[in-house]
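Hello Y.,

Per our agreement to keep a running log of every chain we model this quarter, I'm adding this entry. I've kept the format consistent with earlier entries: sequence first, then predicted structure.
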Amino acid sequence: MDLEELKEWMRERRIGDVSCLTPDMSGTARGKNMTPGLFLASLENKSLRIPELTYTISVHGDTIFNDHVQRTEQDLVLSPDLSTIHLAPWNTDATMAIICDAYTDQGAPFNLAPRQVLRNVIDLYQKKGWTPIVGPEVEFYLIARFNDVVLEPRAPDGASGLREFGQHVYSLDAIDEFDKLFEELYQFCDVQHIDLETLIHEDGPCQFEVNIRHGDAIKVADQLFLFKRLARQVAKRHGMFVTFMAKPYAEESGSSIHLHQSVVDTKTGKNIFSNPDGSDADIFRHFIGGLQAHLPAAMPLLAPYTNSYNRFEAFMSAPTNTHWGRENRTVGLRVPASGPDARRVENRISGADVNPYLAIAASLVCGYIGMAEKIEPRAEYIGEGYEDRERPLPSTLTDSIETFSKSDALKQYLGEAFVDTFAGLKRAEYEHRSSVLSPWDVRFLMVNV
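Predicted structure for the entry above:
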């Protein structure tokens, strides 16, 4: 789409407002709203700017500074990606939204921006003549609205007026309790070019899962980024909240984003994980080997908060290791049954609370290292993965941060500035959380010690 086509697109839809979005480190949409005239002028003179500290904001709102991000708070140039234009259907005025990339004044990509981190990983693949393909499964809970943060969440009332209890996995009747919400969710996804394929009820009360159609890694990450924002807006319109928190209920299953990954030859479109005779290619094993070798170090990108580690619990549909197996949902790396053209690896480790750009980048870069260095995986795990007490995954956020910050491989491929900055953000978030009075403190310590 060129500038004249963009102007015509905006005129036809009578756009009254423009939202320029950029994902921060936690996956939250940051940016600016502006008039259509100012937006079009900014495209011509590159005057759309935002401070670089936008990419060092913690989930609780503080910013960090280090050797890579200075206290002078210099500006970056935001460059709208015209391929991401979409409408924000929940707004009263006709609002156009667009995802932007960040550049320095010299025109260099800003390598701390999560979208650029993923693009840098994809560039590694492209230099080899490969294209990574990603298909995500996204889990989330609908919860009743609340304004007291000390209270535990509860399921909202459905159309019948009843609150859901127990497990209703794969129940269609349980989905129908929120039919109007999901109807609008699908409508809004269609408006925003989010390719939802399936919807199911998961294990927990009002826990659901949607699948986004597999495709180009950047486009899929964009859709995940937009879906989270859209789902929150739709839920509020129906008098409830949606949470992508990894473990909102202590006694219920957590929520994940399972990442199905394959790699195709860029020229031919053929899946390189399969040999011509349909058998597993060596490079397929090496991809798995790379995941096993480096995912433990990349854990802050797949489990970014203290709560994230509560999800990794045996017999709760969450992996506790990096074993791999065919049609085995008890291991971290599952190989689904498929034909040769659809051969793929499902990474079941990442939580629903991730920044989608960074989680996809982490998984793809680990697989890339495996292919580039021909890392052999451990033998396929046969049986129930929870029975193996080995835990190659870090068990706490603090352990995870330390392993991540010392990984030479991740520094090499993701950039030392990014690794240092992200580790600094996670340390700041952990320290802030540790300083806040928790419901556990109130319940068990306030009047008992």
